[in-house]
Amino acid sequence: MTKRNYIMVWDECLSIIKDNIPEDGYKTWFAPIKAISLVGSTLTLQVPSHYVIEHIERHYCDLLRKVFTRVIGNDFHITYNVRIVGDAYMRTPEKGRETPLNRPVTLSAGGQKYNGSAYAVPGIQKVRINSHLNPNYDFENFVVGECNRLGCSAGMSIAENPGKSAFNPLFIYGGPGLGKTNLAQAIGIATKDRYPDKTVVYVNASTFIAQYMDTVGVNNKLTDFLRSYQSVDLLIIDDVHEFAEKKGSQNALFNIFNYLHQSQKQLILTSDKPPVELAGLDQRLLSRFKWGLSVELKMPDYETKLAILKAKCFREGIDIPKGILEYIAENVKGNIRELEGAIITLIAQATFVKKEITMELARELIEKIVQTPQEEITVSKIQQVVSDYFKISPEQISSKSRKREVVQARQIAMYLSRTMTSTSLSYIGSQIGGRDHATVLHSFNTVNDLIDTDRTFKRYITDLKRILSE
Fold first, then answer.
1. 84/172 same-domain check
2. CB 461 within 8 A of CB 385
3. What is the span of the domain harbouring residue 110?
4. Domain end point (choices 128, 157, 176)
């Protein structure tokens, strides 16, 4: 074949394609494709989305084979790069997937096949999408305890059969630093290990929103953006509470969610609150969040914290006396992130400063970096403080009494529990007379409004917060 510029080769291909398909089809599926290199008889194309490849394979297989044979020759190969709009990384061809297009292609009623491959156009390679998964966040590094056992079990079940179980979507919620991202990514990694050909994508809500904003007002970009996410087999979206008040991004997520769910593709979502407590999100989106399984990750208990510390020491190759690990597990009252921060600081002292890890060193570091409160603020403690402040017994606060002073104390206890603890509305309600989350939310909103309009009420809240923080 005479040496030609890759742009000239692709332009010649496009000219033939344009003459053989309707104009709308050409503009939608082929006009956005750009040639980026021609090495020997291998033409590499830049394609706006994975979905475009699947469509042209399904509908234009014979035409493409004839066009490439005519323009490039019988021994040609086609590869492509795919880029999700608004994202900085490129997709690279997966090794070992290239096949010559001039080999036989078998068409069947159920779809086009090529020698058993899911790709109907031989010569176009399947791409490996950068999943953005952290390899350290696998199940081997995920310590299981009572605080996360249900989520872990559900996640392992999903990895065995993604999209086909009742756990779709899986909605993981809990306070910061409790392992939501770790669990979500562990499911993604396990899925990729079991099904290497499946496309798994992890994205934070803020990144998704930024990608969506990059499409606004640009022709075809939004379509490409949606198709890119609709092409995945398992989509993990972290921190979905960040979609609050982002109407355009919510609408994009709604369309992607519907497409993937109807296609039996798996969705995993994480948030700092359960779906029922998320504010600023469209109700139709929230209703979909509730379709599958919602699991809460709670604060780890002593045994789980100790197991986390031991696992961290094992991975770092550091031997720390059991008594010191027990001291850290007992005294670090915060989340898993704070717990790991404490042990990392201790390991750094031993590794870089060459200090011997002693109980005295552990106490010194814990006092400096953790700053644990003298007494943890709990719903029970809040009830007791409110009870003492208003001279009403805790039993009255939890009762069904509708007396004005009791209702006021009850609502304030619920408000303070919501603002000063990381527990859910449902848990708060269960601890204050067995009430539901809607009652707690109503009390929170009522007190919030009164703080802005009633000076006496505002003073009550200020006094109680000061007492609880002492």
1. no
2. no
3. 6-128
4. 128
